[in-house]
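Tutorial handout. Part one gives the primary structure; part two gives the three-dimensional structure as tokens.
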Amino acid sequence: MQFDFYQSGIKQATFYVQDKTIEVEGFQQPRSVLTKELDKRYQSKLHTSPQHFFEKYLFTPLDFSGNELRTQNGEHFQKRQDGHLWIQRRQKPAVNLVVSDGKLVGCQIAVRNIIAVLIRPGYENLTILKMWQDNHLLMQKPFPIASQTTQMVKMSDGTQLATEVFIPDDGQKTHPVILERTPYGREMYYDDEQRFVQRGYVLVIQDVRGRNDSQGEWLPMYYERDDGRDTINWLANQPWSNGNVGMIGGSYGGYVQWAAASSATPHLKALVSMVTAGGPFNDTIYKNGAPISGSLAWFFSTAEKKFNMANMQRNDWNDLMKVRPLSQIPVKGLGHEIPGFSKFMAHKSADTFMENMDWKARSDKIHVPALIQSGWFDDNGVGTTEAIRATNHYPAGTRKLILGPWVHSGNAQYDLGPYHLGEHALRFDIDLQHVRWFDHFLNGVKNGIEKEPLLDYYTLNTDKWRTTDSFPVNPQPSKLFLNAKKQTLDWKPSKKTESSSYVYDPATPTPHLIDVSANELEFPNDYTQVEKRSDVISFTTSPLTTPMTITGWFKAIFYASSSAVDTDWVVRLTDVTPNGQSVNIADGVLNAKFRNDLSTPDLMTPGNIYQFTVETQKTSIKLPIGHRLRLDIASAAENLVFPNSNTRAGADSIDGIKATQTIYTGESYPSHLLFNQEND
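Part two.
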């Protein structure tokens, strides 16, 4: 029995299975028995062990006669309406089985940027490969690699960065270039990204400054604009380059793209930006002035010159987060300071140091065609918001947005805490769109991608993808008013001034429900128990009598006073279900002293009433009949941001004081919630 393995529409290998013996013949690799070493190599490409796949699903009889399947080891699959794909629940990444006439014929697996297919010959049309074929991009004979070399590329200040260059053997003298820059070690991306070499692109993967084999100081984000520019200019002038450079990457690999684009280098011609990180003071290091505690796992993993994921997995985060000053947390946890973390903690406003890394401040220089991909629960969602707004001036056809029901790690699973997504939640064409984008803007291929709608987006609770040419879909915001007396959200403000208070104690901060070691800071959870705390005020609509679809951002604009000179405001929108769950949709944080300007802190006068505006992450969600929309207001989000001490020292002091926080509503203080309601 034969199974062909494809990655991003390119045939990479064939597996031969007979009498439970497995052999594999790979691209430029002779046929041989599947050893542990080969299995591990293909596991990194397929995103599941081929050996285990065949043992669990082929060698073990499975009954596909119904609509659900539970295996002996507890795995759960559901049959899609098309009848051929069985989606795997509660696993990441989901192994989606391909079935024909009651027999297993393969699988299809999605991750953030790549789709892998293992399929018996003749059944390709039951998978995403049909779409590759229809776009004439299915490759049976990929180009081999002519050469792989390590170059030490000199930056303008003399620092040399380790840069791996893969050149295709396609008979061409010059090629467009796809660049990926990373702090995680360039070797990590060799297997996955060689698909671009096989399509005739020069692939370049570079260790950013101070990481892995590159020289220089590791200071996250600080050097990326200039280093990106210098690298791209070097690439454009190599004899194997045609001068057109594209970039791809996610998270930090998204940030480096926008930083390079803000340098206005003329050779950067296309971006594929996934879950991009945004500016340091409002997204990645601080959340609008509140220092992020959830990023500690990331800082620990990059504390050494080479990426060390083991440093993320700890059971003492709660203890470490109590260490002050903040710069000493790594000393307690690792035995030494992390210089970059210490430097960031020393800059407590959006000063010139922070501004150097804020690519959105240079959006007037950004004109590179961009495909922007993110998820509603992406903890760098603010970065994608910045990318969307930085490209609002783009002419039609030069940007595309794909926004799905995903966490930061992306397009890989159907179950996110209380959210059990439908069968269409994953995009099996995500890498197809990436290839089409590069082909059009780097190779001039007339594939029509520039004529397609601006936005592809998934609406929660509908299992539907929609398209539109604007985001938000409805630019006219709806408004719900806070009523402090009734603790409701109403379509009209009450005439009488009302207030509601709570006491925030930094010694027992309100929790943000995440696992810090998982490094997913916006994972959805049920906040019912959190809302019972005395340091949270909730404002809730009446049960909906007609469905309400919200697509875009929430903005909480409220009037409040504090007995302290400084504090934080945390707002969270939740979907309150008829069975009583209160599941987070989106949230936002603001350090009160930055209510006017992130670069100019302004302490409060205790008792004075101020207006605060807190914008949340993006979403698209349909609230069914009987559901309610809820706004929670608190002053802490433990595990997301370090608790504010309510003193001039902010989060950098363990000696905090209790603060009485008061929210005001009514015509004189029209606290309200703005959001974009979609017309169904």
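Part three, for discussion. The CA atoms of residues 568 and 591 lie 4 Å apart. Residues 430-443 form the longest helix (14 residues).
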